[in-house]
Design goal:
The protein has two domains: 11-153 and 170-214, no CATH class; 231-467, no CATH class. The chain starts with 11 loop residues before the first helix and ends in an 8-residue tail after the last helix. Mean pLDDT is 75; it is low at 214-235 and 285-290. Helices cover 70% and strands 0% of the residues. By secondary structure, it is an all-alpha fold.
């Protein structure tokens, strides 16, 4: 073969861009949300506050994208450093530049077009969200308790920042950019501390990004090792008489998110929701000038839904990566004789059991901050409708790659809809009738999706086999 027939190697930045896109995976849809959040919220709410609310939503989307993509990229760099690969520093910098362009510069340029949010503020806010997501996957887990303690102590410090000054800081590109730089410095400090440690890291000292690299071999083996860790196995204690309890045996066999609950698993599942509610209350991020409600009430249904995602993500992982133990379920004795109906019932029960405690927590938070009367029915209807809709979509998408992509897209759409509905609904003196109708339709759609998924699973030779 002549040299002219050989394809030239791709440029280094092209490789870095492809690596960054691959690291984001399904979370790249969040970047699309970040690009559309400001004009969408500005049109829904209809004033400058809508644009700023869209900027907050965009920053949150970038934060979650950075937690996914940034964690994978940091894990990749850690593996390259451990294996002493040549010039891995250069590729790491290129991936960082590609991530900056994808998650900060491009969305900020689009948001600055025809909106009161300027490019400087948009770029600073998105950079702060990206830095916060990177900090979450870089910090040792024990630092979370230090941060909660510092937030509680800051409540009783002498002096108080008035609302006008705080609002001026929040719309200042220099102030928000300074927060982003401080978070990046905190990330660098975490990695310097971890690099200086020569002993093995325990579960409370190992960041999420490093936990990805604990298993050697393929990505499937890494996922198997992650699900075998004590953090997940505490959700599935094994009983002594499972032959008389086939439903319990199925829950234990399905793994994290389905097994029997313990005190540790309940604390791990619902503790973050309680911590967030306390954090919101202690920081006092209440109503601004001219507002009649606590700003954090808008995100309360998302906190409720976050606890119900564990069994859905577990099922998606099983059917996406059958080597995690999907096909073995067809061979295990003692499971229910009707596996399709049992699987649907297990997911429904777990969804209900997981949203009830955070519903109570968020309702208590509403009482603590004197939420409007429309908040409570909105919280219940929106949380229940979205939970059942996501559960039905999860069951229906198990045997289809396109269905899994559609389910991830549905999650993004529901996130936008929940924030918009809460922002509009709690401003009203009573719950708008059209919001109750929309929530009822979504709840009914979830039930219909459950029925369609159950009929599809029953039509297969076996629901645990990829047919």
């Amino acid at each position: 073969m002549s040299a002219a027939g050989l394809r030239p190697p791709p440029r280094p930045f092209t490789v870095a861009l492809r690596t960054t896109v691959a690291a984001g995976g399904w979370a790249n849809l969040l970047l699309v949300l970040a690009m559309l959040a400001v004009p969408l919220m500005a049109r829904l709410i209809g004033n400058d506050k809508g644009a700023y609310a869209g900027l907050v939503l965009a920053a949150m989307s970038v934060m979650f994208w950075t937690m996914v993509a940034g964690g994978c990229l940091v894990a990749l760099c850690a593996t390259a450093a451990a294996q002493r690969l040549p010039r891995w520093h250069r590729q790491a910098w290129r991936c960082g530049v590609a991530a900056l362009a994808m998650a900060v510069l491009l969305p900020a340029a689009l948001q600055a077009q025809g909106s009161p949010v300027g490019f400087g503020l948009a770029a600073a806010a998105l950079a702060a969200g990206a830095a916060l997501g990177l900090f979450f996957v870089s910090m040792p887990p024990w630092l979370m308790w230090v941060m909660i303690g510092m937030g509680m102590a800051a409540r009783w410090l002498p002096g108080e920042v008035d609302g006008a000054t705080l609002q001026a800081w929040l719309v200042s590109p220099r102030a928000v950019g300074g927060v982003a730089l401080a978070l990046l410095a905190a990330c660098a400090a975490c990695w310097a501390w971890l690099w200086a440690r020569r002993d093995s890291l325990g579960p409370w000292s190992k960041p999420i990004a490093l936990a990805i690299t604990t298993a050697s071999g393929t990505g499937i083996q890494a996922q198997q090792a992650a699900y075998a860790s004590p953090m997940f196995m505490m959700d599935t204690p094994v009983g002594s008489d499972l032959r008389r309890a086939p439903q319990q045996a199925l829950a234990i066999a399905l793994g994290p998110g389905f097994g029997r609950s313990t005190a540790s698993s309940l604390l791990a599942t619902h503790g973050p929701v309680v911590a967030v509610a306390l954090f919101w209350s202690l920081l006092g991020t209440g109503a601004g000038p001219g507002e009649k409600f606590h700003v954090s009430l808008t995100f309360a249904p998302l906190m409720v839904l976050s606890t119900a995602l564990a069994p859905m993500i577990r099922l998606q992982a099983l059917y996406w990566r059958p080597a995690l133990g999907l096909h073995e379920l067809a061979l295990l004795p003692g499971l229910p004789r009707q596996p399709a109906a049992s699987l649907s019932g297990q997911l429904g029960r777990q969804t209900i059991a997981r949203i009830l405690p955070p519903l109570a927590v968020m309702a208590g938070f509403g009482l603590a901050v004197d939420a409007p009367p429309a908040y409570y029915p909105l919280l219940f209807w929106i949380s229940a409708a979205c939970a059942f809709l996501l559960a039905g979509a999860t069951l229906l998408s198990l045997h289809s790659r396109a269905g899994r992509i559609a389910c991830a897209t549905l999650m993004v759409v529901l996130t936008i809809a929940v924030i918009a509905a809460m922002a509009i609904g709690i401003r009203a003196t009573q719950t708008p009738a059209w919001l109750q109708t929309a929530a009822s339709i979504a709840l009914l759609a979830g039930v219909v999706l459950h029925g369609a998924a159950l009929a599809r699973l029953k039509a297969l030779p076996h629901p645990w086999l990829q047919n």
